[in-house]
Amino acid sequence: MLYSLLRPLLFSLDAETAHAVTLGALDRAQAMGLQSAPRQPEGCSRRVMGIDFPNPVGLAAGLDKDGDHVDALAALGFGFIEVGTVTPRPQPGNPRPRLYRIREARAIVNRMGFNNAGVDRLVANVESAGFRGVLGINIGKNFDTPIERAPDDYVHCLQRVYRLATYVTVNISSPNTRNLRQLQESRELGGLLAAVTAERERLADQHGKRVPLALKIAPDLEDAQIDAIAGLALGSGIDAVIATNTTVSRDGVTGLPHADETGGLSGAPLTRRATYVVSRLARALGGALPVIGVGGIMSAQDAADKIVAGASLVQIYTGLIYRGPKLVRECVRTLCRGS
Predict the structure, then answer these.
(1) What digits encode the pLDDT tens for the residues 102-145?
(2) Which of 44, 90, 300, 325 could form a disulfide with 334 if both were Cys (CB 3.0 to 4.6 A apart)?
(3) How far is 209 from 126, CA to CA, in rounded Å?
(4) What is the DSSP letter of 154?
(5) CA 153 – CA 119 distance, rounded (Å)
(6) Cα 86 from Cα 100, distance rounded (Å)
């Protein structure tokens, strides 16, 4: 109810300013003891990647890039939080404005460009947070790192976050870092996965624990590409695949204000495509690896559809902007009722 009253005010601000204002307000509410995580429903836990998730509804990467707001976001009732994408060195991302609402379609276009304060800042933030739940850390490459040197950036980030992460996501699917999606091609992906999984094994020996690795892919893939990625994932030691990131398609928003802005599209126009990719990927993986479904979850039914399509867990982001925290509660109730 409160968010529905505040949303008109937030939507009167430009999208990136509203984002910062909202996170600041959540932090203040958390610090004042005005919000606490709701009690998890009975029988809601899921064991995925060898991890016990208190419920199957998570926060997607991108909302809290530097891990500045983990405690406040966890109090919204998520079963897990994913922060990032983080890169080895700080980078400002693309010039503002770079985040746009398409209200008529319940969508967002972003071309943030992996803006973040660098992996060392994220590590310091996570170390100082009180959160002790399931934390995913999403890693990427700096914009100016040549594609052939990309594995070095991912390995560096993995080394820095390993001891703090419950799982680590290898993000190769943002459309806002030049040539990044080239890493989804078989040759580049094979080399990248070999590098990060080999480093993970070394780190597992060093730290005495094995941290699962997830791979995040785009929705703009042909069926043959999805099948090829599934094949590489199965043979690589990767523990899960996250489907999907934002889309470069403008289906469902053509002609609307801001639809022609460069960047990735998220929200309701992505729902069906993301669910299809989850389904295709789950079939290609044959149950050998779990899928985490994300993209266009605007209602509890959308979350349930991702599970029916083959996802073991789901993540939300844009739906949270349009619906507020009640979306988290609705998704948890629906998915746990179906347990």
Answers:
(1) 999 999 999 999 999 999 999 999 999 999 999 999 999 999 99
(2) 300
(3) 18
(4) H
(5) 10
(6) 22
User: What pLDDT digit, counting tens, does each position of 159-182 carry?
Assistant: 999 999 999 999 988 787 877 788
C-alpha 322/C-alpha 205 separation (Å) is 44
Under DSSP, the state recorded for 310 is T
Total length of the chain: 339
| Two tokens, residue 142 | 């700096």
Identity (one letter) of the amino acid at 247? T
Q: Which residues are catalytic?
A: 174
DSSP for 193-232?
HHHHHHHHHHHHHHHTS---EEEEE-S---HHHHHHHHHH
pTM across the whole model: 0.95
Distances (CA, A) of 58 to 77, 96, 144, 193, 320: 9, 28, 31, 24, 11
Nearest C-alpha neighbor of 165 from the set 119, 232, 233: 119
Q: Are strands 107-110 and 264-267 parallel, antiparallel or unpaired?
A: antiparallel
For residue range 27-58, list pLDDT tens digits in order.
Answer: 998 888 777 777 777 789 999 999 999 999 99
Task: List for the chain the helix, strand, coil content (%; round to 5).
Answer: 45, 15, 40
Peptide bond into 244 cis (omega under 30): yes
Judge if the upstream peptide bond of residue 271 is cis by omega within 30 degrees of 0: no
Q: What domains sit in the chain, N to C, each tagged with a CATH number? A: 2-337 (3.20.20.70)
